[in-house]
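Structure ticket #2291
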Amino acid sequence: MRLTTVNLLIVIISAALLALVLVDEAEDGQDDYWRALSANKERKQPVQLGPRPFYLVEVMEESELKKVLQGCAKGPFYKTDFSIGHRGAPLQFPEHTKESYQAAARMGAGILECDVTFTQDRELVCRHSQCDLHTTTNILATDLAAKCSEAFIPAVLDAMTGNIITPASAKCCTSDITFDEFKTLKGKMDAFNPAATTLKGYLNAIPSWRTELYSNNGTLLSHAESIELFKILGVKFTPELKAPAVAMPFEGHYTQEDYAQQLIDEYRRAGIPAKNVYAQSFRLDDVLYWINKAPEFGKQAIFLDDASLVGDLDPSLTAMENLAAQGVKIIAPPLWALLELNKDNEIVPSEYALNARAAGLNIITWTLERSGPLKDGGGWYYQTLANVIDNDGDMLEVLDILAKDVGILGIFSDWPATVTYYANCMGLTGQSEETGRADF
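Resolution: structure written out below.
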């Protein structure tokens, strides 16, 4: 059938109208997305906390704080930037996986962390360490084990006592494999058995207070994929640039500065506002690079303090003022560094915390819900408080002092629901855009 001029005009006009409708629908879809994010910001998006926060409140010793927290049991509960998902929700889910991140967002974490390292072909991926694939993924049970820096070596045990003479070992790095190879792996709970004499025994070593229930389908992500996922989840971003385990420049030309810049570039390409990104590093040089070369991101970059023991800390006002003079605005030590016991065995802010605030630094800290049961003092994360920690509910007492007396902006947690419950109860929203301080 031949088209007349009139019929042809009708076809062209109809096609144009259809195109306009499709454009309008696409714009409406984008509007719906941003409306959803706005509603979440206004606390209209409910979250699912599960039973654990309620359990922790009930096992607290009797106190005014316990009464206040009990009074919040009916909610409402909503996302808060005060609650930061540490590698997602690794108390129960394999860290840095899609499933772990989704769980953390559902528990109300307003900010999620992707620790950033790179593959052999220099693609950025989410892993806590460049060389942790042998403990956090199934790589040793795949053909890619042949590419690992160090193959699995069984433990050598004393035949009489069973004591370890030489621990089992392996070393598999993201820089050993390409990005495509990395994406074939599955995440598992981070664990290994140093006494293992078989590969199966080496891999199956999860602490009793964690679980294997969600370890079968841990989906690994690139840094860029984590950005897209976090956008969908309606959360903010805190990427940590991990220290390379290989010599830099990598393969002669990929420098530390290239690495630090690549992280920022991926947020720019994704159209993420700098105010929603809290880039972190234990290397002060990385933080200073962002401050000087990407100042819109650098002004809220986080300098992580890697002290392992009290003796490693420099709590002096001079040290804090020196950081502030270089443009650092947020410091993040482990939680034990911010607290100490006074002469009456009461938990109070430490000299470190007081001097950081006196120097004008804001504070974020880590990590709640990472110590397992607290009945024996809480281990490394509570080392300055061990004499008064003997109950899982004590973590809420610690959290209350960090929030109200130290004035932290937020806290990383392996199970964000606990922090979300507390923050919602106390009306904490996280960082205030106007002041950069915790908003009570």
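Closing remark: Residues 5-41 form the longest helix (37 residues).
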